[in-house]
Amino acid sequence: MIMLRTVLLVALALSPCAQAYKVLGLFPHPGQSHFHFFQPVLKGLAEAGHEVTVVSHFPEKNPPPNYRDMPLEGMTSLSDSVSFELFEYRPGFGHFMEFFMLYNWGKEACANALNSTAIQTILDSKIQYDLILVEQFNSDCMLGIAHQLNAPFIGLSSCPLMPWHYDRVGNPPLPAYVPALFMGYTERMDFSQRLANWITVQSFKTLYSWFNDAAANKLLRERFGEGVIPDVRELQQRTSMMFVNQHYSLSGAKPLSPAVLEIGGIHIRDFQPLDGDLQQLLDTADHGVIYISWGSMIRAATLPAEKRDAILKALGRLKQRVIWKWENETLPNQPSNVYIRKWLPQREILCEYNTVGTYW
Length: 360
What we know:
Layout: H1 2-13, E1 22-26, H2 32-47, E2 51-56, E3 67-71, H3 94-114, H4 117-125, E4 131-135, H5 142-149, E5 153-157, H6 191-224, H7 232-236, E6 241-244, H8 248-251, E7 260-262, H9 276-283, E8 289-292, H10 305-316, E9 321-325, E10 338-341, H11 346-350, E11 355-359
Parallel strand pairs: 1-2, 1-4, 2-3, 4-5, 5-6, 6-7, 8-9, 8-11, 9-10
């Protein structure tokens, strides 16, 4: 019944002639690339006439009408925060190290959000929200806020389903042919890969319960008192739906319960014109442009010098022009055909007629 109510609510919310609803977004994770996926959903609801309140680290510079930001403070954005050292000499159990990195991020973001002015203002307002959109990534402590507000919630994931997400939406993990996000496998796994995949899925589900859920419960008890908020494992089962940043055309066909909706690509909106210097850089490249970026979190400048110089030596032999997302002002041993910028509009560059290749 709760899921049916939520489905009807979403259907009505997406209709421009529907009654306006009060929607709250809870996004405590300080990852900008994650929020780039969520923001168009939130802005789309506001543009459809609904009252949207957003708790996040990334307030909108030019919010549309009906869009209200409640900024979180006290944490640094994770942009350009991951060093290449994490990937050097990566052992076979390296994905377990990644799990505990996510755990620490989630615990810190949870504590910061629960004790923030933004969350306190939301709770004090006594507004009855019709729907809550909450990121489901590495902590479920925001489900405690949804419980306090007595509103149905939909989970949003900026990546494919994590091993600990399947149970809450009644979806079988099927590790025999559905690879875990952390493994880097395709559906065509051999026996040893299937075994490793099964071990990873079962281990991560258990670890998430032992560590992430336990940490969320502890922080919620500290914030609201003993017995006020149910165990987050119980709250997870109240997830009405999950909107997931994946699409079968790229990630392969897999069985999904009716509570899981693939919305990969929804964040792709109208293109913005390139600035004059960058546009000229692309237009005057007689042999095309190669674009290099390792995402918003990995700091390219931490690349070991010998590997950096080997890449630059190879790039210097090319006749193409190379545009590289590089966070520092200078790039040692930079060839004349390599251009660096601290930030680049990735989508616009990739869709330029003169872009002939990318390395990421």
